[in-house]
Automatic annotation (TrEMBL):
Keyword Membrane recorded: yes
Localization per Swiss-Prot or TrEMBL: Cell outer membrane
Membrane topology: Lipid-anchor
Sequence ranges assigned to domain Outer membrane lipoprotein BamD-like in this UniProt record: 34-234
A single GO BP: protein insertion into membrane
Family: Belongs to the BamD family.
Classification via InterPro entries: BamD, BamD-like, TPR-like_helical_dom_sf
Entry-linked NCBIfam families: OM_YfiO
GO cellular component: cell outer membrane
Name of the protein in its database record: Outer membrane protein assembly factor BamD
Record key words, sorted: Cell outer membrane, Lipoprotein, Membrane, Palmitate, Signal
Amino acid sequence: MSQFIKYSRFHVAAIIALSAIIMTGCNSDEQVMERPEKVYYDTAQRRMKANNFFSAIESLQAIEARYPFGQYAEQAQSELIYAYYMNGEDEASHEAAEKFIRLNPRHPNIDYAYFMRGIASYTRDKGMFARIFKSDLSNRDISGAKQAFGELSEFLTRFPQSQYAPYASQRLIFLRSLIAKNELVAAEYYLQRKAYVAALRRAKYVIENIPNSSETMRALKIIRECYEALGYFELMEDIEIVIKDNGGSVIKKSESSSWNFFSRKAPAPSKN
């Protein structure tokens, strides 16, 4: 009996010692896994250079979670905006931009956050079929385009000298033309159904909110037709004079743009 107790005590001591070794090993693994902040950041940079944005997001998120007040925390937050966008996560990119604006209003990359917020607003609500087949976006829901137009306009107002201003101006050319075309598609739809007031409202929106666009003359002609149908002949004559004075074309500058919405390209944030 005493010998049994002796062996039992030996076994218990062995189990305790083995458990201690296992726990020490686990703790050692955790210390190895807990990498320094700069290692995460450098890893993220390498992954983004290799266009591995999915893995880059993991490294940048680790910095945000483990070192929220560290040396690279704010820079990582700005680069998350870019990484999300390039990885096709437009909603996450937009949210990351808004978060950066809220938390870092004086950061050197604040202009980048405003810029990318507008870019992500447009792309985040586009359907897969539009992406694949490049259908006429003027016939689709463009609520995202209108939001992007407003946000990019705000960006240019706040940061007219930003290095990203040329990119924003290029995209605004595309958006203004798209919004104008969309409004006039609706106006022509109402014209066909003799809903002249609704058609007039759409065409006037283009004239008042998107002046000098590629669709200005088209909008004026719809307004003229609506005035005639509604019996506003004096107003109709005024519109005819404007059309005649412009020789049937009010376009003063090219609305063409080399930017292709379907090509997912965006500048990366500056290093600070």
